[in-house]
Structures
1.
Amino acid sequence: MATQPMRPPLKPVAAHSAFGDLSPAIVRELETVSLTNHYPTGAVLFSEGQAPRGIYLVESGLVKLSVCASDGRTLILRIAQTGEALGVASTIGARDYEATAEAQQPCDVTFIRQSDVLRMMRVHGEFALWITQLLSRDYNSTCREIRTLMLSGSASEKLARLLVGWLDDRPASSHPTRMKVPLTHEEIGQMIGTSRETVTRLMAGFRKQRMIAQEGATLVVSNRLALESLITA
């Protein structure tokens, strides 16, 4: 069951990072039907198998998307960042949410009800196109997840592909080889389908080969070419 967000809700902000390049008129209408809430770490926005209520737009922070197997194993699909939308396909297709969304760190998330999303899609072509673009991004992310899990021949290749992908997903930065990794080794293992012990061993090996360095929660990719050489598919 989804965890209720902290109350009271935040007031609508002047510029929603997740609304992208929508025209001011559309954004103003969205602000009248949306609600932005603050979620603490560990709060569940929606759960796998739950009937869709609407879409969630990440304004700040990180949200973990995961699925659970019948044997209790958890697979983390991805970590959603600022500007990403969650639950779009389920909302549009009127199907149960296919994953669980959990706050990986304190975050602000804007919610738009299913009825308002569908109504605005019928009325505004610009909004319908925006929703289509969100679906396209989800599709691309899913394809990349499949490539990471199914086309990588070894755990070391999966981990290398994950780290390189994280670098590519970061916005332009003055430190292109540095990134914050807010995941434990167990959670990284859940992203690439292996154990915490294997991730710890591989990370130690990457450090020994001077491919990466660790500075607290900051990961430094000191030899990207060496990491990319592990990726064959």
Note: The mean pLDDT is 87.
2.
Amino acid sequence: MIEVKHLTKSFDGRTVLHDMNAYFEEGQTNLIIGRSGSGKTVMLKCIIGLIQPETGEVLYDGRNILKMGKTEVNNLRREMGVMFQGSALFDSMTVLENVMFPLNMFSHDTAKERLARAHFCLERVNLSEAQDLYPSEISGGMMKRAAIARAIALNPKYLLCDEPNSGLDPKTALVIDELIHGITHEYNITTIINTHDMNSVMNIGESIIFIKEGFKEWEGTKHRVISSGNTALQDFLFASDLIRKASELEEQQAKNE
């Protein structure tokens, strides 16, 4: 479980997070949604500890990361898996070497055990056949799966994903959604996902927070999204759906050419 209490963050005198409070359940896919510039990425970076807010607490099962020293933060990060927006794979490493990277950095297991764990993670995301390829040699969807394999390599208690479906076609995005959702439930992970993909919201949104201009505007589940009655949320859903349909139409036209 991760809990955020009274989080406030400003840049150059402009407040981008206003007294944010949130509770992210263990064993669930917890989504943070909102338009670009709404503050959701800043919030995720505060949760990870990459940005220090002016006020507030970020509690990992009661442990406040914002009050920890460097050693304590490093120890806590061994319990985290992080999936960045652009996958952030190392170009000079093979897929297998990318997955091995956190194991070599943080694990105290033997080399044989680390290799076995990396192979297991690649198998879990159906990517074993690509282990000897470099990021430039695989598709965007495969890169995302490799990033997930690396994120779960240390068997994390917490999984944090920033726009995991960015740049993917709807079919591949659905595969990534279901993979993250399945891993979350299988290993009882506290998963937080930043997204503006409405397909993700409706497919795996077990707990959803909608942020508008740095304020928590609404929270609920995918079953309550459509009937929320919140005007700002409905505007966001409508605009997102139009963008999605336009993207799908553009993709179909490209295939027909």
Note: The CA atoms of residues 99 and 209 lie 31 Å apart.
3.
Amino acid sequence: MSEEIIPFRIEIDQDSVENLHLRLDAARWPTELAGQGWTRGIPLTEMKELAEYWREGYDWRAAEEHLNEYPQFTTEIDGQRIHFLHVRSDQPDAKPLLITHGYPSSVVEFQRLIDLLVNPDDGPAFHVVAPSLPGYAFSSPLSSAGWAMGRTAHAWVELMRRLGYERYGTHGGDVGAAISGMIAGFDEEHVIGVHVVTDPFTAANVASFMPGMSDRLDKDDPVDKVLLDRMNEFRSEGSGYLAIQNSRPQTIAYGLVDSPVMQLAWIAEKFEEWTDLPIDRDQLLTNVSLYWFTGSGAGAAHTLYEQAHASDWGAPTSVPRGFAIFGADATVRRVVPAPPDAHWTEFERGRHFPAMEAPTQLAADLKLFFGSLT
């Protein structure tokens, strides 16, 4: 297997851009029931406005040019093409940091964060490595079945070895948080620390999959009651996207790669539900555009299926752990398995995508956590 690392540049051909515009122009819109708001998905008026902006106001070429300001590469690991940003700091004591996005995201999530980490006004600097998950964006198409989080974590260990980093930190949110922790278990000798982000709703969503968690919580305790209510709400109202992708990823893939409106709605709904601070609309559409142009809605669906059927949850690790809780409340400590000596920071606002919602606060916490680690 070749270990070659190849420079990469994003160059979406004009035919693909024009085809997107034609498909948006020809969109067939559903009717909707009056007065339902967001209870049944994105309201028609808001969806039309967002699609119209994607067609008329959003500038893909400007977004592409901005992304290409970051050094990018590809390499093949375990039979899979892996795309990654590798942005090195000019500071001689900069620390390598591997950051991993989740679903339904991409490396676009980290654009503002990377600049704050590589060239900070104060505090430690970082060499940032930001891979695209297998099956996402330019790490697509998937080469084979089996790309659950454990296999991805092993691939990231190999990626950092190829880049020559003897000591490095890891960071992530959503599935990127789990992958970051697994890396530490697989490569404890080289990982200086693991930093993850979460929020009360994500923590509750994850807790809903933990065997026996509901039985361990006391419905008469006010904090546990809030947590149980959120877990039940996720099971009944919020997990539909997972149910279909965990069971029939190929079926949903046809809609995601054939209809830009479907792909847009599939992602935009989650960004609306999972954020509480404004995010840049162009940044959101750049994320959606990567899914569209690479057809990676299908790959993402298959990786969710793989994880739902996986049994590899990594190995324990003793490396330092850091947690940044956005939109924090008392429920998170009930379900997040943080060691007693873990770094723990709570932020009043922000939620699932803090690199987009609150990049300055996230960068500050990363510098605080990793500052003393070697």
Note: The mean pLDDT is 96.
